[in-house]
Structures are given as structure tokens and as C-alpha cells.
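Collaborator request, handled under Task 6.
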Amino acid sequence: MDFFQGRCDMLICKECFKDEELRKEVQNEGVEGVCDVCGKNGLVVDLSHFIDFFKDVLRLYKKCDESQSTVLQTIQNTWGLFGKVEYGEIILKEVMNGFDPGYSLSDKVAYEDFLQNRIDIWERTKQQLKEQYRFFVNHDEFDRNNYIEIAVTITKGTNLYRARVTESGMSKFPSNKMGCPPKDKTKAGRANPVGIPYLYLCRDINTTLYEVRAGFLDKVSVGRFKIQRDLNLVDFDFDFPFYTSYDEGFDRWCDLIVKFEVLKEIRKDLSKPLTRYDTEIEYVPTQWICEYCKIIGADGISFASSLDNNGLNYVIFNPSDAKCTKVLCRTVEEVCIKAR
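C-alpha cells returned to the collaborator:
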């Protein structure tokens, strides 16, 4: 990368960073020395090697008293750059020593308006869908910025899973009862509108137990579904290499940041657990975004489970694209409940 090479008089090592690309850069460009941040011996580079990058990171934010996080907390929570919070504080303090971003390390911050206004497209769309247009919301901004793209493929023959709590008196559900309900009995869900069945699947059995809200000692029927053809999906778990993408230029870097944040907000709504107090109008925005995915040619979507930290959920638009080949029996032997 083309960095300003003036000395900052601070040597840093790879242990200062958690981000793998930053660690790799230090490893590739460093010389033997002692790190001024953590005191370890090893390969080090002068902070000037990264100075433009960190200045532009700081330029992403502005002082905002209504926010909950400082710039260091925000950077660490969002991008996970530093090996330890205290390392990040030392490094950012040195960067700010010769550069004033308009706030201090103790100030609360939020994205600058030029970013936040674009990120808010999802909130604006949700409001319009709930309160104004419903069926004819303008999706030009989604089209123009390619926020929604087909990015992953599930290959034919892949096994995915779906669960139902087994009814009293049954050993398990038969395979023909493990799929979607018929159209006339299909209720609205996070992804599907009323009367249009989608198939909700999980990558592994454990996640299905969370998603079906199985309780202690519940007997659960778990259907194993085999994918019948290659399926192209929109993946809402969008990630990008924050540091190395900076080399593509500031504008392109900001485009990726916006896309990351927009898809993160959509993913939150897709994975939000349904509650007994939800109304169908709460589902309209995520139903709309799934309809948009269908329009651009996707066979389904994928997103992280909010109930299982390691879980991955799938929504298949055409239920015939997956066939239940076996039903497994499981009994829930332990439940962990957390409250806050």
C-alpha cells in the first residue's frame, strides 16, 4: 500500500493487532526490534506504515453525544482491529497526536453523515413498507449500489436440516410431514408472505433445536433434507477484508462499509426470533427483501442464526428444491436460559 513513510517514532508488532491482514502486513514488512506498545521482541514496523489507514478510519466517525460508544469501542466492536483494547488506545492516541478528527478518545462517536445517510436506506425502506406504500417501494438504491447480490451456492446433494417438536403419542413425524405446510395453511413468517410457503432449513441439527424453540425433555423430529440441484443464494452474512480493501481507494472502501452495515441490519431483522406479540406487519420488510432476492434470480437466502452462535439458517424459495430423505429422533436433555 502507498503509505506516508514519515517516522512516527512508535514501533508496533503483529501482536498489537487482531486483524489477520494487519498482522500479515507487519510480518511481511517488519524488521527485528522491540515493540513500543506491548514490549515484545520480534518483527516491528513504524506506525507511519499504517498512518494514512488509521487517519481515514478516524475520518469515518464524528462526535455524537447520543451514541453509546467511543471511537475505540466502535472500531473494536465493529472491525476487531486491535489485539487488546489497551493496545488500540496507545496506537490511536499516537495517531491523534498529529491529527485532529474533531473528537477525542473519550468522546462518543457515530458514523459521519455521508455514511449514515446511506446506511439508513434499510430503516427508510422499512418505514415506507409499514406505513406508506407496501407493494411499490422504490428499490433503485438497492439496484444502484448492489447491496443484494447472489454470492454463494449450495451444491446438489448437500444435506440440511429442519425440526418439529414431536406431538404426544408419536415416535416421530413421517418424512412427508417435515416440509412446508400447504399454501392454504401457510402463515406469514419472517421471510414468506401468507399463502406462499418457503422452506426454512439449518446447516446442522443443533441449530434446528434452537430455531424450533425445543424445551427440556421435548422429543424432536429432525428431517434431513437433500438439496436436489445447485442453488444460488444471497448471503446476508457479508464480510470483507477491512484493511486490504482500503487499498482500493477511499470511495470504494466506504461503499463496502455501507454494504456491510446495510446487510448487517437486514440480517438482524431476518434472524430476529418471532414472539407471541409480533404482528404480521412486522414481517413485511423482510418478506419484501426476500421477494427482491427472488426478482434478481436467487433460489434462496442464508444468514446467521440469532439463537445459535455457530448456526447458519437457509430459506429456500421453492420447497421442491430440497427433499426430506430421513427423519431422526432427538430428545432435549439440557436447556440453558439467560436473561438480561
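The cover message to the collaborator said: "The two ends are 45 Å apart (CA to CA). The domain at 150-170+181-331 is CATH 3.90.175 (Diphtheria Toxin; domain 1). Please let us know whether this matches your experimental observations."
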